């Protein structure tokens, strides 16, 4: 049974990475989910592991992959390249795994054109002010960087209505439960369709007149 492709997007600080981490920790004991690992030409940061956090490649290697049309989508951010491997995603889907892509709204648009059956989920912060406070509490960025992130966040949030589902992350545990509910519901729908070889509900109920209902 083929897996489902999930596109996950959010502005920085909305909690997307934490939600995905918790989702995999709590619900991936059977290895039924796969988090897509992007290719990048930027150097590894301290603690990052090749093929775990990113597939680290040279610029020449990346450009060769572009020529081979090996990416679903790719982008150049300043002088660094980032891309999503078509082969790795398809391999996981064919293995029956649900695949999760952590990409922005622009990448999501590209993916939906190529994979129209993909499900897309946008993670929203409770408010812009709460988002700003989360970025400040990180104590990782200057005020200028935070201001730039906030401007970018507003642009990203304006595209929330392009997604199948929107989750407001004001309560982490509840949002995690909602995220899992979406995945679980899609799995059950998929099982019903595939187990009945595409038969419609009318086909399955044909001839049933309710006489066996003893309630």
Question: How would you summarize the topology of this molecule?
Answer:
Elements: E1 5-9, H1 16-27, E2 33-35, E3 39-40, E4 55-56, H2 59-67, E5 71-77, E6 80-85, H3 86-94, E7 98-102, H4 105-114, E8 119-124, H5 128-138, H6 143-157, E9 165-168, H7 172-195, H8 201-205
Parallel strand pairs: 1-7, 1-8, 2-7, 3-4, 8-9
Antiparallel strand pairs: 3-6, 5-6
Helix pairs in contact: 1-7, 5-6
Separation of the first and last Cα atoms? 35 Å
Count of DSSP strands: 9
> Overall mean pLDDT score?
89
* Main sheet: strands, sense, barrel: 5 strands, parallel
Shape: globular
Radius of gyration: 20 Å
Q: Which topology does CATH recognise?
A: Rossmann fold
Q: What structural category do the secondary elements indicate?
A: alpha/beta
Question: What is the CATH H-level superfamily?
Answer: P-loop containing nucleotide triphosphate hydrolases
Low-confidence stretches: none
Can you list the strand order of the major beta sheet? 2-7-1-8-9
Helix-residue proportion? 40-55%
CATH architecture: 3-Layer(aba) Sandwich
Q: How many separate structural domains? A: 1
**Percent of residues in beta strands?**
15-25%
What is the overall number of helices?
A: 8
**Can you identify the CATH class?**
Alpha Beta
Query: Helix and strand succession?
Result: EHEEEHEEHEHEHHEHH
